[in-house]
């Protein structure tokens, strides 16, 4: 079985797949955030739209039947190799996380390169019997040391995994 993209150490089929297939709903903001990360990894644009609050879509000027949103998401997915997810904190309706990635559009070398980071504190809202992504604040990248857990979710130290 394939491990879940969200680095939960659970099989994808038991973790995020039921949410991405809309057979289950996320029961916490963290579960929704993890499933959204998996949606980026698998290219599931419809799930990303479906799990976003309408205020977020309007704030990002995604109008015209979400054509702009779809195109922006497709471009992000096409130009990004997601490497791992670390959930740093959860509190109420917020989740702080770091997603590690290579920007393939910018010509990042895909091996032995320091990855980019999306460090965000995301806000979620519970509406119409489900959690939705509302918005987020981007934070400075976290500092990784050689003895930090590897960003890929292997459970190994960075110095023994992706940076070796």
DSSP strand count: 4
Q: Catalogue the unreliable spans.
A: none
Q: Mean pLDDT across all residues, rounded?
A: 87
Find the structural class using helix and strand composition. Answer: alpha+beta
Biggest pleated sheet: 4 strands, antiparallel
- Supply Rg: 16 Å
| Binned strand content | 25-35%
Please write the string of helix (H) and strand (E) elements: HHHHHEEEE
What is the topology, as strand order, of the major beta sheet? 1-2-3-4
Q: What is the overall silhouette?
A: globular
Describe the overall structure:
Helix content is 26%, strand content 27%. A four-stranded antiparallel sheet has the order 1-2-3-4. It has 164 residues and is an alpha+beta fold. The chain starts with 16 loop residues before the first helix and ends in a 25-residue tail after the last strand. The protein contains five helices and four strands, in the order H-H-H-H-H-E-E-E-E. The longest helix is centred in the first third of the chain and has 14 residues, at 29-42. It is globular, with a radius of gyration of 16 Å. Strand 1 and strand 2 (94-103) form a beta hairpin.
Outline of this structure?
The protein is α+β, with helices and mostly antiparallel strands and 164 residues long.
What attributes does this structure have?
164 residues; alpha+beta; 4-stranded antiparallel sheet; globular
């Amino acid at each position: 079985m394939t491990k879940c993209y969200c680095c939960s150490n659970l099989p994808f089929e038991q973790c995020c797949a039921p949410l991405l297939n809309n057979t289950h709903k996320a029961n916490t903001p963290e579960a929704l955030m993890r499933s959204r990360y998996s949606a980026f990894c698998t290219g599931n644009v419809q799930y990303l739209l479906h799990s976003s609050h309408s205020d977020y879509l309007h704030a990002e000027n995604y109008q015209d039947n979400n054509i702009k949103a779809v195109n922006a998401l497709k471009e992000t997915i096409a130009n990004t190799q997601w490497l791992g997810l670390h959930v740093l904190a959860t509190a109420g309706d917020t989740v702080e996380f770091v997603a590690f990635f290579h920007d393939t559009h910018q010509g990042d070398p895909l091996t032995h390169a320091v990855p980019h980071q999306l460090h965000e504190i995301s806000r979620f809202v519970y509406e119409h019997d489900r959690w939705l992504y509302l918005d987020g604040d981007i934070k400075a990248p976290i500092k990784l040391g050689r003895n930090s857990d590897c960003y890929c979710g292997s459970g190994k130290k960075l110095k023994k995994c992706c940076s070796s």
